[in-house]
Amino acid sequence: MSRPTDVDPATPDAELAVASQRTLVWRALRRHKLAMAGLVITCLLYLVAVFADFLSPYDPGDINADYAYAPPQQLHVVDTSDGWDWGLYVNGYEQTRDPETLAQTFRENPDEKIPVRLFARGPEYKLFGLISTDIHLLGPDDPDGPPMYLLGASRTGHDQLSRILHGTRISMSIGLVGLAMAFALGVVLGGASGYFGGKVDAVIQRVVEFFMSVPAIPLWLGLAAALPRDWGPLQRYLAITVILSIINWTDLARVVRGRFLALRGEDFVTAAYLDGISRRRIIGRHLLPSFSSHLIAAMTLSIPAMILAETSLSFLGLGLRPPTVSWGVLLSDVDVRALETAPWLLLPGLAVVTAVLAINFLGDGLRDAADPYQS
Predict the structure, then answer these.
(1) What is the distance between the alpha carbons of residues 346 and 162, in angstroms, rounded to a whole number?
(2) CA within 20 to 30 Å of 290's CA: 63, 75, 209, 279, which one?
(3) Going from the N-terminus, what domains does the chain have, and what CATH number goes with each?
(4) C-alpha distances in angstroms, 350 versus 157, 335, 345, 347?
(5) d(Cα 151, Cα 164) in Å, to the nearest integer?
């Protein structure tokens, strides 16, 4: 029988054998193209949420009723009508009114040129809530001149681009805040149910089954409708977050319970118990880390559900309300006329689809990378 040869420490197999779990997961995740694309898009969305004030040309609450339902303007880089005149600009609007229906329509006026500049001055805001400034990434050269609507205007004359950017902050953050609460409930209650078993398991599982047996949409509607109508935007935001957390913790609790039931009889858990290690330390240092990658994947896949739930409630008028700006609030303004004459009002829906797909792709990649030895 031949003697096995030693593994060269410089070979990739040797590096894989001594790599940490984090390194193995990242190595597998990098090979998942859709997951990496989802990671990039998700990071960009959260950057937009952080710098929404800087990226927005206008304050989301600014109204110009004269430009209600104004269509998107095309941003030009060079004007070739009279030679080659370089510089950012948009063409102004020419407004006409139908003498019979009195409907106001807009069309591009090539004779009116509105200069646009980078790092333009506009409405004042506080960057990170601390630094007062009025510098915006893009805006008209003259803040008091004709407006610039790159993604069109709403039915009340709001800049659609500014409102979508600010809506990113609310819609993406409610997913994180709600997920943190749901994750804590799922891990704590699911872990207690699976580790202790017996009466504790029976009580917790009956609670889980109760929440899972109630139809989701009627439960959302009932809880959201119970909120006092005189609550402010911040109070409603926190209340909707708590409601979403109450609804979305049950699936994670069932998963955590199943993993605890499978692992609590393993030799390493028995050895830790015989060594006199406390139950809290066994759970926190031995059981949870053994399937932490699965928890990360489950947590990532739960964010789209939170975003869709907030969007649905706000669209139905039972979630967040103006002046709070979220993607669901913006979609609640869409009516039959918007579908026919102002399709740009559906752009918040495109933002929702993009965010949900990106986070789902990232979650799928994390789930596949949770067992990096498979490849």
Answers:
(1) 14
(2) 209
(3) 37-50+164-374 (1.10.3720.10), 69-151 (no CATH)
(4) 21, 16, 10, 5
(5) 9
Highest mean pLDDT (candidates 49-53, 60-64, 179-183): 49-53
Cis bond leading into 323, ω under 30°? yes
Tokens describing residue 371? 């067992």
Residues making up the chain, counted from first to last: 375
Contact 271, 341 (CB under 8 A): no
Q: Taking a C-beta distance cutoff of 8 angstroms, is the pair 125, 96 a contact?
A: no
Please report how the helices 160-196 and 347-369 are oriented relative to each other, as an axis angle in degrees rounded to 10.
30
Assess whether pLDDT exceeds 50 at residue 221: yes
Neighbours of 59 (CB within 10 A): 17
**For residues 78-103, b (16+ Cβ closer than 10 Å) or e, as one string?**
eeeeeeeeeebbbbbbeeeeeeeeee
Higher-pLDDT residue of 52 and 247 is 52
Compute the average pLDDT of residues 114-137. 87
